[in-house]
Amino acid sequence: MKNMASALLLIIVLPIILSSQAAAQEKPIQLALFNPAQIVPESNSIKGLRINLIYGKNARMTGFDWGFVNHTTSDQLGIQWGFVGYTEGKFTGWQNNFVSITKGMFTGLQTGFVSYNSSKVNGLQFSFFNYAETLNGLQLGLINVIGKGGFLPVFPLFNFSFDK
Fold it and tell me: Residue 39: which region, alpha, beta or left (left: phi > 0; alpha: psi -120 to 50)?
C-alpha cells in the first residue's frame, strides 16, 4: 500500500516538476555572436527577443528573431529576419530572410530571395525562388515549385494550390 501511494504521488508530482523545469529553460532574451558564444545555451528556448550577430541556435523561438544566421532546432512562432533563417520544426508567422528554410509545416508569410519548405506551406511564399513540398496557398516569384499537387509542378511568376 505504501509503494502504491508513493507511485501515485510520483505520477502526480513528476509532470509538475518536469513542466516547471521546461519553463525555467525558456529565456526572454538571447544575444549570440556565434554558437556556442551566446548568452543562452542552444538547448534552451527563447520567448522574447533573439539577436544573432553571426550565428545563433536555440531549441524553440517565440517572438522576434533577428540576425545573420538564425537557427531553431524545433518550432518557431513570430517574426524572423536575417540573411539565413533555418527552422527545423514548424514555423508560424513571418519568415523574411535572403534564404528562408523551414523543414516542418509553415503557416504564414515566407519572403526573401529563396523560400524553401520541405513540408507543407499554408499561406504565401513571395521570393525569387519558392519551393514547397505541398501548398495550401500562393507562391509569387520568378520560379515557383510545388513538389506534390498544385497548379503545375513548376511555373513562373505564380503557382497555387488550395486544399478542398
Answer: alpha
